[in-house]
């Protein structure tokens, strides 16, 4: 009987430790993008390519109040651009968002037949730290939590 009681205590202790560890991770994740003095977060979108190519880009430049506001008029918050990117000519755009989890960056290669893959790479950094990155032969997509 003592063995069973000790096992229950050990299981309860381990379970409580796991819950506390998970809560600690959740809090540290939530605070990793803490808004410094209400100034918002510096969000940087970057596109690089292994060869010179033309790309169509969509990226969030202004934060909507809610997903419903975004869905009602997405182009109020998104920017579209057609750009030429090459190994020595990356494309970079910076904006400020109160909640960087809204950041989204989609890339579409306008490659025509007979050309090799551009091997594109997208990246979103938040306050100088890489938040997400993705590689794709033609059309990478980078996004954070709201999507």
Topology:
Blueprint: H1 2-31, E1 41-49, E2 53-60, H2 67-72, E3 78-85, E4 91-97, E5 104-109, E6 120-126, E7 129-136, E8 141-143
Antiparallel strand pairs: 1-4, 1-6, 2-3, 2-5, 5-8, 6-7
Architecture overview:
- The longest helix has 30 residues, at 2-31.
- With 147 residues, the protein is α+β, with helices and mostly antiparallel strands.
- It has one domain.
- Mean pLDDT is 81; it is low at 3-32.
- It has helices spanning 2-31, 67-72; strands spanning 41-49, 53-60, 78-85, 91-97, 104-109, 120-126, 129-136, 141-143.
- It is globular, with a radius of gyration of 22 Å.
Euclidean distance between termini CA atoms: 52 Å
Mind summarizing the main beta sheet? 4 strands, antiparallel
**Neighbour order of strands in the largest sheet:** 4-1-6-7
Gyration radius, to the nearest Å?
22 Å
Report the oligomer: single chain
Helix segment tally: 2
Q: Could you spell the SSE succession in H and E letters?
A: HEEHEEEEEE
What is the total tally of β strands?
Answer: 8
> What's the structural domain tally?
1
Strand content: 35-45%
The assigned structural class equals alpha+beta
Give the overall shape, derived from the CA principal axes: globular
Average pLDDT number: 81
Unreliable sequence segments: 3-32
| Residues in helix, % | 10-25%
Keywords: Signal
Signal peptide: 1-34
Protein name: Secreted protein
